[in-house]
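Internal QA ticket QA-208
Title: Verify multi-chain structure generation after dependency bump
Assignee: T.L.

Test input:
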Amino acid sequence: MSITVRVPTPLQRLTQNQAEVKANGANIKELIEDLEKNFPGIKERICDETGEIRRFMNIYVNEEDVRFLQDDTTPLKDGDEVSMIPAIAGGRQ
Amino acid sequence: MKLREDQIERYSRQILLPNVGGKGQEKLLNAKVLIIGAGGLGSPAGLYLASAGIGKIGIVDSDVVELNNLQRQILHATSDVGNAKVLSAKERLNNINPDVEVIAHRLRLTSENILDVIKDYDIILDGSDNFPTRYLVNDACVLSEKPLSHGGILKFDGQAITILPGKSACYRCLFPEPPPPGLVPSCQEAGILGAVAGLIGTIQANEVLKYILGIGDLLTGKLLIFNALDPSFRQVKVPKDPKCQLCGERPTVTELIDYEEFCHVRSSQTLSVD
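Actual output:
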């Protein structure tokens, strides 16, 4: 099983500057654990101390926000694309 | 309202469009748009909106032009360095199109003044640069039922969404909470490619024009994501969140709050809000 993960710019330091990586997992939780194995430090950027997905970091399976599916138990299947999209604020400066 | 000869000539290439026409041009000339921030997003947006003949454009900004702004804030010129951004913006837009009444709001938006500033405008374009202002603008627009075009940029990335209060997801439906200070860097810390600001600001202007003209689909209920390096445009769905604290089924935010406190920025940094 192979899931394509799109890594947001602020986290690419942890993925050796790769914008897209492959990972495995039957659901989002497992996928994050698998990412953490290959890219140590990435989990704490995605999840808070209690293991919940941070509220300014949205995770999408294909085009759907997992908050409106089953959060971190949202199931994944081969070929899915997972995107992590953080809030960004720039504009005026 | 009857278009003058010179207006028919000036706007001929858009009047030609089947879903614009003379009627559409009149809508644009009667429209009132508020641009928050005369910076990387507000600059391209302002240029296109003034060129298209928006009748009244308000610009909110409290800052002066700095040399390091000119790489992307294309409303301002080298000779404007040290002057108020709203003044160089007004001068530039007036030069492009004397049809446009430009209102310079040289102030910093706060919970106390924002409702009064936005009340006379039909639609708001947010080109601010920090989370407290973004949530302030979102909440003020939803509470006063003003349509809002939101754009954000950082490094090589851009995001845009259009918010029709009560009808489509708001910024809090998309991001219920701001990141803690320091976790997501600002453009000042991380950098921004000028053309990325140009693209997103132009997309925001395009949303405003479509809203006024009543044509096409808006970026409502979806977030447009641009990456300059791929290069790619993608969209993800943004449903209205029934649990949204502002526009959900049981709202807990029913008036404007203290946004610096909400974003935990008061003690850790000095804010330069518009």
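Spot checks passed. The longest strand of chain B covers residues 148-154.
Status: verified.
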